[in-house]
Amino acid sequence: MNTNLKTTKTLAYRLCARCVMDTSDPDITFDSEGNCNLCSEFVERESKKILRGDAAKRELEARVRRIKDSRTGEYDCVLGISGGTDSCYAAYIVKSLGLRPLAVHLDNGWNSDIAVKNIKRVTDQLGIDYQSYVLDWEEFKDLQLAFLRASVPEIETPTDIAIPAALHRVAAENDIKFIISGGNSATEGILPKSWHYNAKDMRYLKAIHRKFGRRKLETFPSFGLLSEAYFKLAKGLRIFYLLDYVPYDKAAANALLKEQFGWQDYGGKHYESKITGFVQSYILPVKFGIDYRRATLATQICTGAVTREAALEELQRPPYDLAKVKIEKEYIAKKFSISVSELDAIVAEPPKSHADYPNDERLLQGLYSVYRRLAVRRLVRAF
Predict the structure, then answer these.
(1) Is the pLDDT of residue 269 over 60?
(2) How far is CA 256 from CA 51, 251, 252, 264, in A?
(3) Does the structure show a pLDDT above 80 at 248?
(4) Can you tell me the mean pLDDT for 279-307?
(5) What's residue 56's pLDDT?
(6) For residue 309, what pLDDT band results from cuts at 50, 70 and 90?
(7) Contacts of 13 (CB under 8 A, 6+ apart)
(8) Any idea where the domains of the chain sit in the sequence?
(9) Region of poorest pLDDT, from 37-41, 103-107, 169-173, 273-277
């Protein structure tokens, strides 16, 4: 198994004393007690949150009232749904709060059968209207294959851009002011920046597609800084991370979804998408030394959901099932219209990073600093 090149050159291996993050993040640092900056920053952020218990309940009630009062048509919010635990549980909570959501799923051609069934079961039984935002497969395939050929970890950037683009477009088209996301700090609070560069850097996306792509992007929904600013500041759209305002235990959520809706587990975080499952379980650890389980488990350790000992035991097991890899490779290669040998050759190429391609990292850092201040003021007034 390869390791991240930057890690190999600059850091001797080290494991955090509190969580399970290690030097697979080349930017990781440790304090005198051996605790890493990633979990220390997460613990500090969580300690500063005042919205707990009754305070969180009151804030949730106030925001729900705002969402309901904003309704001008049939719906008062757009709900992003993938078929995974977080978004399906968010759908359950949304309905229990008396909201009237329009569920929107981005169909990028990689849905697992289980994810599709989960979405249908949950939305049907909850009485939620559901819309699928279907991407042009040939365009999307060309863009995602370009990122794969570029040998960067951000293979999922095309999806990460298309999801918010789809949600914001549908919301604006229906004059809906609120987007509800299943994203949450309980399971996603820790993620090294070195593992995934800014998905909204359109210069970076265009540079990779120009170098490795073969088709024009005529319908692909982009979502860079300008698009985000337009939807947030001009159209007044707001994203609400609902699960951060309710007690959220993922295991309990899984059990509830199975019991009430016949929801099915799909085998791993984000495995509702076949490409995401393959990228996170196989390509990232094999090519880049990145095991996404570490970030999830580190977050769960800090929230008390799992013990460090259990997390370390989990990490002793390989991130992928060797017996299934051959089948998965054949499926992925066929979807990309390439051979398995070509897929293997791409995975074997030396890893690169966003720094190896034209990007607007410095410019975006400065612009986002200004944008966040403006957006925060606008959102505070809105809520």
Answers:
(1) no
(2) 25, 9, 6, 11
(3) yes
(4) 95
(5) 83
(6) very high
(7) 22, 23
(8) 51-289+321-382
(9) 273-277
Q: Tell me the two tokens of residue 217.
A: 């992007």
CATH code given to domain 51-289+321-382:
3.40.50.620
Q: What is the mean pLDDT of the chain?
A: 91
Query: What tokens were used for 178?
Result: 């609120």
Closest CA to 19 of 249, 250, 271, 310: 310
